[in-house]
Amino acid sequence: MDEKHRNQPNPLSNNNQTNSGWRDHDSVAVIIPAYDEADRIIRVLNVLHQVECLSEIIVVDDGSKDTTCEVSRREAEVDARIRVLKHPTNRGKGQAIFTGWGATQAANLLMLDADLMGLRPEHVLDLIQPVLDGQADMTIGQFRGGDWKTDLSQRFAPWLSGQRCLRAELLELIPVKAAAGYGIETALTVAAQINGWRCRRVLLHGAWHIPGELRRGLWLGIRTKARMYAQIVSAWYLSGGLDKLRERSRLRPGAG
After folding, report:
1. Beta strand spans in the chain (E)
2. Potential cystine with 241: which of 57, 100, 150, 236 (Cβ 3.0-4.6 Å)?
3. 79 in any annotated domain
4. Residue 256 within a domain
5. Could you tell me the CATH number of the domain that includes residue 224?
6. Could you read off the pLDDT of 77-110 as tens digits, one per residue?
7. What's the CA gap between 52 and 47, in Å, rounded?
8. DSSP state, residue 37
9. Rounded to two decimals, what is the model's pTM?
10. Can you give the C-alpha Rg of the chain in angstroms?
11. Each residue of 48-85: pLDDT tens digit?
12. What's CA 113's distance to the chain center, in Å?
């Protein structure tokens, strides 16, 4: 790891900070929601160690039953930018994102999944740079060439990508109920459409993650996937997706 960050004090690492108050325009906090990812999160953290421009790396252990929290805290001992927050019970990915956001003053947020495979430092830079340069309000990472299953799923549903960078203030436009569980990506996508955010797609060549049905076993994976899609539909509705669809129908030539 870069000696520059080893045990170096970080002005943004105070546990009493909130998401209000002073912000450095170029500050970037990474938020990593993690549930039972002890065997995988180390890969992501090892990559983030190498990215010097990150202000904070916030791991939110969402009630894990394994040693995700302990593994992440060991990494925090060698990189002072890492902070580990823990939910006593599993509250869902969306709430984990909001917990991480509430603990930082960074002006920009980078959201990464804890189970990423093939992540490289240049992927991280490609996600954050358009936002820092003012060229995009939100970037959305898309897997390419890592594993055909995740490539295929993101070609059919690119809005479900969990790899995103955005200006932190935009989360204020996301209804907490809509972002519950696995609904956070859909809620962000609908908010972008409604509010006219400038979004940019970023290809993450060689990156992928293991589908849940393979990690958790077939039947548990299928149940988890079904719950995820139910939460996605709920997020779309609660975020105003139906209203946006009706508006488009009214504006369509010949409608009405």
Report:
1. 28-34, 56-62, 82-87, 108-111, 116-117, 138-144, 164-167, 199-205, 208-209
2. 236
3. yes
4. no
5. 3.90.550.10
6. 999 999 999 999 999 899 999 999 999 999 999 9
7. 11
8. -
9. 0.78
10. 18
11. 999 999 999 999 999 999 999 999 999 999 999 999 99
12. 6
